[in-house]
Amino acid sequence: MGLMSEYKAKLVSAETAVRVVKNGDWVDYNFGLAQPAVCDKALALRKDELRNVKVRGGLLLRPIEIVKADPDREHFCYNSWHLSGLERKLSDQGLCHYIPMVYRNMPLYYRKSLEVDVAILSVPPMDANGYFSFSLTNSACKAITERAKVVILEINENLPVVAGGQHNCIHLSDVDFIVESDNPALPVIAPAEVSAIDKKIAALIMQELSDGATIQLGVGALPNAVGTMIAESGLKNLGIHTEMLVDAYMAMASAGKITNSHKNIDKGKGVFSFCAGSKELYDWVGNNTAVATYPIDYTNDPHIMAANDNLITINNCVEVDILGQVTSETSGSRQISGTGGQLDFLTGGYMSNGGKSFICFTSTYTDKRTGQVHSRVRTSLPENAVVTNPRTQAHYLVTEWGTADLAGRSTWERAERIIQIAHPDFREELIKGAGKLGIWCKTNKLF
Q1: What amino acid positions are annotated as catalytic residues?
Q2: What kind of architecture, by CATH, is found in domain 7-180?
Q3: What is the pLDDT of residues 135-151, one digit of tens each?
């Protein structure tokens, strides 16, 4: 059978495709821009026929119909690998459960531990050789489709074909059903607004960068501020090795800062696993031979990323305590995002020859309800807060007040250095807290 004949034989409506879902099934919607739209709507219409259908997704960028159709969760149970803003609201309403993970292990979770009855992925149209690109999402696509009993592809012509480094596509022969969608526009993420304090912190990071460095940027205003400063700086011959490709990389590349020429692995290629940002970013990534997409167990493997000298990783957090424990995903007991790859890059950046891993945060925040100012540096993390980065892996913390190098430091040294970058209004209180914990020596500095 020729490729087009096989394609047509597998081509069905969304309503027909989702009829394979049965009571009790695990259905996988994948991650980010790979999540389906028309099949999600078709599955939601089957609500009254189904019970206990569990759906996995992550980084949801558009409303999800199975949740809207079933607010009492009698038919569908949605679970997320990483909460987006939409999923955070769903979680607050009890409509989304978080799946704890170390991001680099995501393909391994599927291959060793998880059931997938039906996998539904959004992909670009098939190429002349019968392959479908995983496009802007390649976190664990291969592992998910290998594990799935049934594979459904939902075609979206707006998804670009992205150059692959590894496991970046699936062949028609490995697909059970194909659904041609109405090609919904791709969701976009607006760049986070950068404050004056963010710029001050970014300026401290800039002092640590040199020509030829490989850069990993996380999500948020601070990494965006660093990317903007790099684009406007005199730095050159920088490289990309990241999990998430964001608009800041496009800005740096457009300014001529990115060549990937000094990387020890994937020389000449900017490496990423998934992409989310503006429409201009999606257009830039499509058929761009200067970038390559890999699964997350490659991009986020600390040993692989550390093969690049001078790897600089830059990420945000919510709060830290004076022991050096970092929470980046919860506010108290409230789940607001996820571990993601922060711990992966924190480890790999420090392992890199000449590399450094920075966790950045503003020293204070203002409660929107009360107007009260709080310190992000605390004597101890709030009850039920999740430790994203253990104190043993906290290396460089950065606020607008400076940088604290914690690697290899004793508890009293850590307390001193962390308090020194806290807001001055809270330092005395933190010193008292350190004293109660028995980690403040008489020889400690007073600020």
Answers
A1: 243
A2: 3-Layer(aba) Sandwich (3.40)
A3: 999 999 999 999 999 99
